Amino acid sequence: MFTGLIETTGTILAITPTSGATRITVAAPMLASRLNSGDSISVSGVCLTALSIEPHAFPPRFSADLAAETIARTTLSRLQPNSVVNLELPTPAGSPLGGHVVQGHVDGTGTLLALDPIHPESPATDWRLRIAIPEELLTYVVEKGSITIEGISLTVAALQGNEVEVAIIPHTYAATSLHTLAVGAPLNIEVDVLAKYAERQQQPEHFILTEEYLLANGY
To answer: Helix, strand or coil for residue 172?
Structure first.
């Protein structure tokens, strides 16, 4: 499990199709020495398994294989060498949850519509990010709720149609891949898993009629 608090960024070194899964290689100078083969790592919001770790290479790096589902549902196979990606290691049990519960299971991709500075004259301005997301994800997005964009835990500031706005503080803009993205860029989106569970529990086949429910509703 992750929390959407990005630890550092890495750089795509290679994307290599193989006879099986597509393999990506990521330069990760700050994290490679902390990885063991088989560890989970979030790469721009996608939970992957670290393989072929080379902490003493230049630059330090790891690889990961992309399954067909990952290729179909995320942006990773569309990246190019030198693309910047957000990296986060799993949250140890008992650690504070600074963001929100992030699984690294991307629900779909959105599109960057705008990333505008609020105070253009200031070098330390905050930013307003506006994205379009697939309509089937809208039911899980609410104003002031949580959403994961490129692995970053963010709070929904406004919602209009299928467009979502979030506020970006200067630290997040500078310390993640956001400052490298251009309008039109595809973005990995993970909605709040708690919202998905809540919706499922409201479906008739999953609703359990209890004595407590009957009493509370006057039956």
So the answer is: helix
